[in-house]
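Lecture notes, continued. The same structure-token format from the folding unit now serves as the input rather than the output. Read the line below as a description of shape only.
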């Protein structure tokens, strides 16, 4: 980055009228047997009914009991990490169906004259009534560290989600003990990356049923190797990443016995020119194997295609996602992927530095992506913003993925240099209008989400189980914000996947849902956004349809489960090879 640059049970008949389990005889990218229209067929705009009421995002942070202050540790040294901020996560760590919240934090630098006691990450337990309780100490997570990013996943398949936290000076793997506590097993697991790590993601890249781990690293920086930079020749300023050498990302293979092996070079991932800030797992070629996209800062982005044999081939340049349209490596921050146009192909969104606009890379289906941002409202609206956390989510449940972007500059005095650019910036909320078109509607969802903040991490999750996706945003050296989605009146279907032959979380499973509007597709995934983790359960917007005609789940193992006539307004658990094994009604009307 540069500072300046140009649950209760429903009546069974309401849940599902039919449930079939298919053996893995079809290709993973084939559609449901006997379907009339292929999954991914575009949803006709005429079938997408308007919301019943306008969505509002309400700041419920204080009333929910979340009291948090991020600490950069800064005291005049102007260290590069002070500009970066930390991520956030939704995690149902106790399996009660309600998403809990993890907020990452920095800590004081050595020599800080006024050390802030209690500057640690914070774990907030969801009480199920709209409030949270700080359980950090009880959970064993009150460990001082300069935390950056987080990945949520059940790496040992014991049924409880674990935490991998990236941090300056050494990452941490926290094993979920299943009793409300976590144990730091970093050394025991053979982990402990000491680099300047940022975003991370769990991914079963070899589909052996065990979650592997991808970790993005930024630059070669420590307090001891800090470079003195200045803008006026006198006062120290924050250096740009060009002044520091890059660091290769790391790929750890899960050995299936609680330990991991660094296979970065063996897998073809090693590249010390990378300066990675965002990671998105995307099956961009539709072959059923997870590929890895990395958003780099001032270096070309990377797209690692999975070769199905434990190795990857880097294809970002040939795929068209390495650079901007004019061949420039931009300041890539957060990233995410989704089938936003009903094509059945997963495209990419990338947050970039101010004066660069975001990247909206449409997957053309032939191995190529085309950046649609320069000719769309996404590009125009984001040109002046410095975009960190970003993700696709269907905030109004109309069946089309929308986009949220969390913005905030690095330099508190940037407006003195560039009058049209500010330090605190409003988020962007792009409503998906269909046919590949978006509109920024942040001014239409209430006065609270559009307030300028110095945002960094961002994630989504349905914290109150009403079917509407809420938003969690961190700020640099400031508070975190929880925004409740009041809902549009459209119908939601929430799906939790439980793997048997596949990894327990079902990460990597492709879930397809059909209504009268057409097909929607989502992957159960880890990673995305900036240093953050959104919830693992999937939420599908059914519009005003009361049920999904079909639900098809293609698991990483190759198993295919096919459900029919699945009612909306419920949260179902689908277990690999067994169909619906649990369900509960949603608390609201979604």
């Amino acid at each position: 980055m540069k500072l300046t640059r140009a649950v209760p049970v429903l009546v069974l008949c309401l849940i599902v009228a039919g449930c079939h389990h298919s053996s893995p005889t079809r290709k993973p990218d084939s559609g449901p047997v006997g379907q009339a229209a292929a999954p991914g067929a575009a949803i006709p705009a005429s079938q997408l009914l308007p919301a019943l009421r306008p969505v509002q995002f309400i700041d419920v942070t204080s009333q929910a009991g979340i009291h948090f202050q991020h600490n950069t540790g800064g005291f005049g040294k102007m260290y590069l990490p002070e500009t970066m901020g930390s991520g956030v996560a939704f995690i149902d760590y106790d399996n009660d169906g309600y998403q809990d919240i993890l907020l990452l934090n920095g800590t004081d630098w050595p020599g800080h004259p006024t050390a802030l006691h209690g500057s640690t990450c914070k774990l907030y337990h969801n009480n199920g009534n709209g409030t949270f309780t700080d359980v950090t100490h009880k959970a064993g997570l009150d460990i001082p560290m300069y935390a950056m990013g987080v990945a949520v996943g059940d790496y040992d398949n014991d049924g409880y989600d674990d935490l991998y936290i990236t941090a300056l000076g050494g990452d941490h793997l926290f094993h979920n003990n299943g009793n409300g506590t976590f144990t730091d097993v970093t050394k025991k697991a053979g982990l402990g990356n000491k680099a300047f790590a940022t975003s991370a993601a769990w991914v079963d890249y070899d589909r052996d049923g065990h979650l592997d781990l991808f970790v993005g690293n930024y630059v070669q920086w420590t307090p001891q190797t800090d470079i003195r930079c200045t803008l006026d020749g006198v006062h120290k300023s924050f250096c740009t990443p060009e002044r520091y050498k890059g660091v290769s990302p790391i790929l750890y293979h899960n050995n299936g016995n609680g330990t991991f092996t660094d296979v970065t070079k063996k897998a073809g991932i090693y590249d010390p020119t990378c300066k990675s800030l965002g990671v998105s797992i995307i099956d961009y070629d539709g072959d059923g194997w997870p590929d890895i996209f990395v958003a780099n800062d001032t270096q070309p982005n990377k797209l690692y295609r999975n070769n199905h044999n434990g190795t990857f081939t880097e294809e970002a340049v040939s795929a068209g996602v390495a650079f901007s349209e004019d061949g420039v490596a931009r300041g890539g921050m957060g990233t995410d992927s989704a089938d936003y146009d009903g094509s059945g192909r997963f495209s990419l969104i990338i947050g970039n530095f101010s004066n660069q606009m975001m990247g909206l890379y449409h997957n053309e289906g032939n191995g190529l992506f085309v950046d649609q941002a320069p000719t769309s409202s996404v590009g125009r609206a984001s040109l002046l913003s410095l975009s960190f956390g970003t993700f696709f989510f269907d905030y109004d449940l109309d069946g089309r993925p929308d986009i949220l972007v969390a913005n905030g500059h690095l330099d508190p005095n940037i407006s003195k240099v560039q009058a049209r650019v500010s330090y605190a910036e409003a988020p962007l909320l792009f409503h998906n209008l269909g046919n590949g078109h978006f509109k920024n509607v942040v001014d239409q969802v209430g006065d609270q989400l559009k307030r300028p903040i110095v945002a960094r991490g961002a994630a989504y999750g349905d914290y109150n189980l009403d079917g509407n996706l809420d938003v969690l945003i961190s700020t640099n050296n400031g508070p975190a914000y929880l925004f409740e989605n009041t809902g549009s009146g459209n119908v939601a279907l929430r799906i939790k996947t439980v793997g048997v032959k596949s990894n327990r979380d079902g990460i990597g499973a492709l879930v397809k849902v059909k209504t009268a509007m057409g097909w929607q597709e989502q992957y159960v995934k880890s990673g995305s956004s900036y240093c953050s983790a959104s919830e693992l359960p999937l939420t599908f917007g059914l519009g005003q349809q009361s049920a999904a005609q079909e639900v098809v789940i293609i698991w990483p193992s190759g198993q295919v489960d096919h459900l029919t006539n699945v009612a909306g307004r419920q949260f179902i658990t689908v277990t690999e090879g067994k169909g619906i094994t649990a369900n509960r009604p949603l608390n609201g009307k979604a």
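Point for the exam: The chain has five helices and 39 strands.
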